Amino acid sequence: NGYHRRVHSCVDVAEFVAQGKSNRQIAELLFISERTASTHVANILSKLGFNTRTQLAGWVAAKGSVFRET
Questions:
Q1: Is the model's pLDDT at 27 over the cut of 60?
Q2: What is the DSSP string of 4-64?
């Protein structure tokens, strides 16, 4: 299901940002274009009200295992 995969990719992107990965690295890992990875990052930042990747990384770290699917 496309919706289910999109949700997973947002989680994946957020976790990769928290790991310090660049948009290019994220794109390679998810088999998407660098532009799509950049758009995902920008959308995630916007939805969470963040301005920087560092803020997103801190948020992911604070969520810990709650952020991951069980």
A1: yes
A2: HHHHHHHHHHHHHHHTT--HHHHHHHHTS-HHHHHHHHHHHHHHHT-SSHHHHHHHHHHHG
**Per-residue b or e along 48-65, where b marks 16 or more CB atoms closer than 10 Å to that residue's CB:** eeeeebeebbebbeeeee
d(CA 65, CA 70): 8
Cβ-based neighbours of 32, under 8 Å, separated by 6 or more = 9, 26, 40
pLDDT of 2: 55
Under 8 Å CB-to-CB from 59, ≥6 apart: which residues? 14, 48, 50
- Which pLDDT band holds residue 15 (cuts at 50, 70, 90)? very high
Which residue type is seen at 53? R
| CA–CA gap between residue 22 and residue 66 (Å, rounded) | 24
